[in-house]
Amino acid sequence: MKKYLFVDRDGTLIVEPPDQQIDAYSKLALLPGVIPALRRCVEAGYELVMVTNQDGLGTASFPEEQFWGPHRLMLQIFESQGVRFADTLIDRSFAHEGLATRKPGTGLMRSYLGDDGWNRGASAMVGDRVSDIEFAANLGVRGFHLGGGEWDWDGIARTLCEAPRRAETERVTRETRIRVRVDLDRSADPVIATGVGFFDHMLEQIGKHAGITLSLQCAGDTHIDEHHTVEDCALALGQALRSALADKRGIGRYGDAYEPQTAASVAITLPMDESLARAALDLSGRPYFVFDGAFPREHVGDLPTELVPHFFRSLCETLGANLHLAVRGDNTHHMVEASFKAVARALRQALRREGSELPSTKGAL
Question: Cys-Cys crosslink for 176: which of 42, 78, 220, 349, Cβ 3.0 to 4.6 Å?
C-alpha cells in the first residue's frame, strides 16, 4: 500500500516572512535540512503531497502573478535535488470564512479519504502550526509539529525512515491459540512456550540466531498430536515477520547460511558435529520450499521429525519466502537443530536493514 507524507508549505518547507506571504523571489528561502530529509523520505517510499492554506490567493490582497513565480521556483529547486511532489493542494480561503477546505478541515482531501489504497498508519503530516496537527488527526495520520521545540527535519526523517520493525500476531482456531511478538531491530532472549519441549528449543534457535526479539506462546491440542501446534506456530510466525517487514525497503532480502571468512566471502555450510545444514532464502513474496534430507529417527524428544520440513513449508507460506534447505548427518537431534540454526542465520542476513532502497527491479516485493 502507498504511504504519503503530507507537508505544509510556509514555515515548513520555506521560511515564512512576517507578512505571511511569499509574493516575491527575494522572500524565498528553504528551511534548514528540508531537502536531505525529504530525499530520505522519498527513498524510503513516501509520496509527497503539499497541502497549504494561502489566504486570499487570487484576490487583490494576494494576486496570482505574485504567488506562482516563487512557488514554481521552489518546486524546481526541490525537483533538481530529487524531491518531487506528487500533488499540490491549495486552499485560497480566509480564516474567517470557515470553509471545510481550509486546514484543519479536510475538504481538499476527498479523493484521498475515499481511497483505500494507502496506509494511514504508515503515513504522516508535517506542519508548523497547531492547525496542521489537527488536520493530521482529522485525516487519521501521525502529525509532526515542526519548529515547536520537539521536531526538526532531521528528527522527522529519522523517525519515519528508521521506524522499529515490530509486529504482534494472534492466531486463534479450534485447534490452537497462538500469540507472536517480533522486533526485527532488537536482539533479546527468546521467550517460547508451545507445550512441545524440543520444538520450543528449536524456535529459540530462530530467535537467537536470527538476531531478533521473538516471543511465542501457543495453547494447542497436543493431547491429539503435535501437528496442529507446529503448523500453526509456523503460520503465525511467518505472518508476524511479514507484518514487521512492512514494505521491505532496505532489507538484504537474500540470506545464505554462511559466515564471510575472507574478502571473497567463501560460503560455508552450518555444521553441528557430524551434521551439515545449508539454507538459502529469498524474501521474494512468493512462497516456495525445497527440502533435501532424511532423518534417521522418527522423533526427537516429543517432536516428530516429519514435521520439520512441514514447519518450514508453512513458514514460507505466510512469510512469502523462497527457502531451500538441505541437511545430512547421522544424529537426528543434530540434523534438526542445524536446520533451524541455518535458516535462522539466513533470516539474519535477509532481514538486515542496509538502506532504504527496495531490493527488486519490479518495484514491489
Answer: 220
Residue-range domain boundaries for the chain: 3-161, 166-351
**Could you confirm whether 10 is annotated as catalytic?**
yes
Question: Quick one: average pLDDT of 19-45?
Answer: 93
C-alpha to C-alpha distances, 210 to 49, 62, 270, 284, nearest whole angstrom = 38, 59, 14, 18
Is 23 a known active-site residue?
no
Interval 225-268: pLDDT, tens: 999 999 999 999 999 999 999 878 778 877 765 444 333 333 34
The CATH superfamily holding the domain 3-161 is HAD superfamily/HAD-like (3.40.50.1000)
The CA–CA distances, whole Å, from 23 to 71, 85, 177, 209, 261 equal 9, 21, 63, 59, 62
CB 249 within 8 A of CB 356: yes
- 211, pLDDT greater than 90: yes
CA 190 to chain centre: 22
Give residue 209's pLDDT. 95
Which of the four pLDDT bands, split at 50, 70 and 90, describes residue 328? very high
Options 3.40.720.10, 3.30.230.40, 3.40.50.300, 3.40.50.2000; CATH for 166-351 is 3.30.230.40
Q: Rounded to an integer, what distance in angstroms lies between the CA atom of residue 123 and that of residue 143?
A: 9
- Is 285:320 a contact under the CB 8 Å cutoff? yes
Report the C-alpha gap between 276 and 255 in whole angstroms: 17
pLDDT of residue 162: 79
